[in-house]
Amino acid sequence: VKLAPRTGGRITAGAVVLALALGASGSARSALGPRYGGELRIALAEAATTVEPSTPRGTADRILAGLVHETLLGVDDEGRPRPALVQSWASAADGREWTLRLAPATFHDGAPVGSADAVRGLRRFLRSESAAAGHLARVLEGGDEYRRRSSEALAGLTSVDDARLVLRFRVPTAVPLAPLASPAAAIVSARGAGAGPFVPTTPPSGRGLSATAFGRHVRGRPFLDVVRLIVAPGDRGADADVTPTAPPLPPATGLLLLILDPAAPPLATGRARALIAASVDRAQLARHFLPGGEPAEALLAPTMLPGLPAAAPPRSAASPSPVAGRVVLRVASDVPQSASQRVVAHLTALGLEVQALPAPVAAAEAGQPRLLVWYPEVAEAGLALEELAALAGWPGAVRSALEAADTVRDFDRRRAEMQRVEGTLRGTHVLVPLARLPLPLGGRSGVHALRVTASGALVVENAWVEP
Amino acid sequence: VSRLTEGRRGQGLRGRLLAAFVLVAVPPLLLFAVFVIALVSDRLERAARQRLGQGLEGVRARVSRLQREADAAVAAIVRDKVSTTAISDEKARTAAAELGASHGLPLLEIVDGSGRVLSSRHWPAGVGLPEGDHEVAGTSDLRWETIAEDYGAAERLAVVATHRGTWSGVPVVVRGGFPLDAEVLGELSDLMGAEVALRDSARGRWVARADSPLAKAAAFDPSKGDGTADIAGTVYRWAAAPLGASLWEVVAVPHTLLAEVTGGVRRLTLGVAALALLAALATALVLSGRIAGPVRELAARARGVGAGDLEHTAVEASDEVGELARAFASMTHELRTSRERLVQAERVAAWREMARRLAHELKNPIFPIQLSIETLRRALDQNGAQDAQRFQSLFRESSDTILDELRSLRAIVEEFSQFARMPPPRLAPTDLRELVERVLALYRARAASVRIETGLADGLPPVPADRDLLARALGNLVANALEAMPDGGTLSVKTRAVVEGVALEVSDTGPGLTEEQRTRLFTPYYTTKKGGTGLGLAIVQGIVSDHGGRIQVESAPGAGTTFTLVLPAAPIMEVVASDT
Fold first, then answer.
1. For a surface tag, which of B203, B267, B301, B516 has the fewest beta carbons within 10 Å of its beta carbon?
2. B109, B151, B155, B203: best mutation site toward chain A, by most A Cβ within 10 Å?
């Protein structure tokens, strides 16, 4: 295999080889730093639903998207764009026009990544189910018509040359490029090949998928040679390198979210929803029923939107006001059972008759009470609030408030607007944040540099394993 | 017809014999079948009741055993662990799980005085919250416990024991036990060979294994104690007993099993009874055939004897019927011998009578012939040719006398010849009305002084008859009647329908017959008329007899005479067949 190691890779590899040759101990090897080679086996409770660019439906989808695909841009923990296939960008026309310059990169099938691929990928993205795509279509010139399929023309997206493309917006927006970080906006070649750090060598199946390192990845060859995703429900994947049973990787980016559908009694009244929201002792829940979890009072993580309310102190032992009625609660399968049982116990203690039914992660559709672990599609506050508002069925004036906030380009003012929108959305008590929990995966000792993004993706691009 | 009649007689005897066999064989068989079915049904019912009773007892025994075990384990926990253990709040959360595991109690929870769960093995999610359980009314051993299940919790019935104690100085209730759930009830069901379930009549719900048919019985009232219930198309026999105020143990067995066994026994018994009945019928057929066969044959022989057939044929039979057959054969033999002797005597008498009649008939013409010839010889010897004229006159007179007598002799010979040459009748459908009118037309001219009356019935069926022979017979009767009324009178000819066929009556108002004349009337060569041959009525009787009919006469001196011919009216086809 001809490698294209990143800067310093040769030195590190040489050091590892030298350490091996000297028969150094494991701890000594670890101290030497990253090394090329090796295989990482990741045990997952469920298989990925697709290998195509799409909005991830679960942990497996997010991991697979990060392995195989590459987007034009990424976002950091605060939602600011960072380079990916696009190496630089510039704005004009008072922020209504943005020119993106592509980095020299190659798809897995050997084709160079060009602006035509980017335009094709973004056109597909605009018609996908992605919430971020909905946001982009709303602000891009001709985006709405194109997304509704009433027109094939898309004036807001053009290719200047092989390496440049231009996005034109109807109005200047605060976060024009953040939607491009959605996994659904990944760019593929004309033959469907991705440009991610790993090349799939087996088709995805119910048993998993294997991928080998892509030497011509835009950020250089990953350290690992092979990554295997192994679908192993229960304890069958215990011997893998990354397992659901190992201590979970920080940070706690998932939000345990109780959605109280206001369409039907007993959740139709705001009082009942408020009583339910207040009845759950979040501190107890996070401490005793969610390993690695944290109590959550706000809908967004402080890293994404600082200044939101912190966790409330423990509730008093006084009996809450009762709420009568029957609730069928759909619980997504990635919610820890102990946490779900605790939430059900709280609701039952309120006087509700609760029937908890398991549901696939992908089936947590709107229109019914449900308990799920929510990750933002794109870790940007405005886009994340849009997603949450959609989950809540766009209550009240949230849509107009969000649209208004999107036009505010002053950073502090926009943050204040976002905080207000979050408070409004939370005040409906349709979305009840309960706790933050880490991705239910952890690496064994000897696995290094695994990272979890704010949108719940496990990044193995920089990971390496001790021999 | 005779064969049919004979067959019916034979069938009648055989039928009666068969009926007798059936009457003797069937009632015991039916009684046996009813008895067996009743016996088996009763035993199966008892077995089902016993099984249901054992099932109920088994559930109670299992509940008692679980309660004893729970009581001992919880008492030990309270005595050895809870009362003496000072425990941190953090450790308290998992204490129930550890204590339950070490004491073999799948259900264990520790509740404070206000009813909040301090620790729970089966519902850890409820720690710090009010316990969601409640007792089954009417018993302290059974509770509806909230148990963690999948993503939520479920209320499950449990056998529990409760003890009070203190834990880190706090008064607590320690409650532990075992679930009385679908698994336990399924195990009991398998053990009992019956469906075992619990019914909460207040909430209208079942505790039963998943595939239990009882769980499908939405409307079920166990308070009746027992009964049958149609569940999903299957009938179950069930019994119930209370475990609490509104909690019942219910045991059920498929009633169809009982019905199937009873039905099987019923079918088997009825099958055996049917086979026995068939065997009895077959035996009856054979025996009745062996009994009725010779009897039927004897009857046929007797009818043959009645018809004149005295030929002896052996009837094969033994025992009493054989003895009867042998006696009958002996009798037939005697009859035949007697008849032969009688026939022989009658034949001799008839020859004698014929000889006498011949002598008499022949003597009458011969004597005048002899006298005429002697007169002629004497005249010839005495007068010679001198008195030729007188001789010629005498010769002419004598020769006339001789010729007359010779004609009489020829007539006599002709009459005898006709009687001897009587042809067999050629039967054809014959209308009696037309025949009578044709015959009377021949005699009307000769009966100027006699009034002729007819009474011919309408719609009579044609009779099978030889028209010529029957006309001759009727003519003879009409001629006799006219001769009996030389001084006038009334001749009456009538026809009418009778049982055997058609009757033809010829009556006159003549002097009538004496008893002696009437008995000898049909004897050949017997006559009361001067110059008669005595063969006329014999010929009539012969013709009627050849037609299968009969003739009878009613007469008394001074009261006229009536001859009645009865002719059978056979079906046309039979007549035509005979004709062809």
1. B516
2. B151
Rg (CA), chain B: 59
Strands A249-259 and A447-448: unpaired
Please state whether the peptide bond connecting residue A358 to the residue before it is cis, i.e. omega within 30 degrees of 0: no
Q: How far is it, in rounded angstroms, from Cα A117 to Cα A136?
A: 18
User: What pTM value is reported for the model?
Assistant: 0.65
CB within 8 Å of B45: residues ≥ 6 apart: B258
ipTM of the complex as predicted: 0.81
Judging contacts by C-beta atoms under 8 Å, the chain A residues touching residue B125 are 289, 338, 341-342, 344-345
pLDDT at B320 over 50: yes
* E strand spans, A125-248: 157-161, 164-168, 198-200, 208-213, 226-231, 242-243
- B42: three-class secondary structure by DSSP: helix
Backbone angles phi, psi at A319, to 5 degrees: -70, 130
- The two tokens of residue B352 are 């004698």
Rg for chain A (alpha carbons), in Å? 23
The pair of three-digit structure tokens given for residue B326, joined into one six-digit string: 């042998």
pLDDT band at residue B8 under the 50/70/90 scheme: low
* Contacting A residues, span 237-296, partner chain B, CB-CB under 8 Å: 281, 284, 288-289
* DSSP-derived secondary structure for A28-48: HHHHT---S--EEEEEESS--
Q: Quick check: B158 and B198 in contact, CB under 8 A? A: no
CB B142 within 8 A of CB B135: yes
The string of DSSP codes covering A346-406 is HHHHHTEEEEEEEE-GGG--SSS-EEEEE--SSS-HHHHHHHHHHHTT--TTHHHHHHHHH
Q: pLDDT tens digits for B251-291?
A: 998 887 667 777 887 788 778 878 877 887 788 788 777 77
Q: Which residues in chain B are closer than 8 Å to A351, comparing Cβ atoms? A: none
- Tokens of residue B529, six digits: 């008329």
The answer to whether A77 and A303 have CB atoms below 8 angstroms apart is yes
Residue A458 and residue A439 in contact, taking contact as beta carbons nearer than 8 Å: yes
Are the CB atoms for B172 and B111 separated by under 8 Å?
A: yes
Q: Among A180-194, A278-292, B83-97, B558-572, where is mean pLDDT lowest?
A: B83-97
Q: Which two tokens stand for residue A420?
A: 């207000």
**Got the DSSP string for B43-110?**
HHHHHHHHHHHHHHHHHHHHHHHHHHHHHHHHHHHIIIIITT----HHHHHHHHHHHHHHTT-SEEEE
* Ramachandran sector of residue A254 (left: φ over 0; alpha: ψ -120 to 50; beta: rest): beta
Per-residue confidence band for B530, with pLDDT thresholds at 50, 70 and 90: low
Token pair, residue B500, equals 């055997």
d(CA A331, CA A294): 20
Instruction: Give Cα B41 to chain centroid, integer Å.
Output: 33
- Rounded CA gap, A304 and B191, in Å? 62
A208-213 sheet: strands from edge to edge: A198-200, A208-213, A226-231, A39-44, A242-243, A442-443
- Separation CA B71–CA B177 (nearest Å): 8
Contact A443, A249 (CB under 8 A): yes
Residue B467 token pair: 């028209």
Q: Say whether residue B153 is in contact with chain A using an 8 A CB cutoff.
A: yes
Please report the residues numbered 200 through 219 in chain A whose beta carbons come closer than 8 angstroms to any beta carbon of chain B.
Answer: none
| Burial (CB count <10 Å: 0-12, 13-18, 19+), residue A304 | buried
Categorize the per-residue pLDDT at A212 as very low, low, confident or very high, splitting at 50, 70 and 90: very high
Cα B235 to the center of its chain, rounded Å: 40
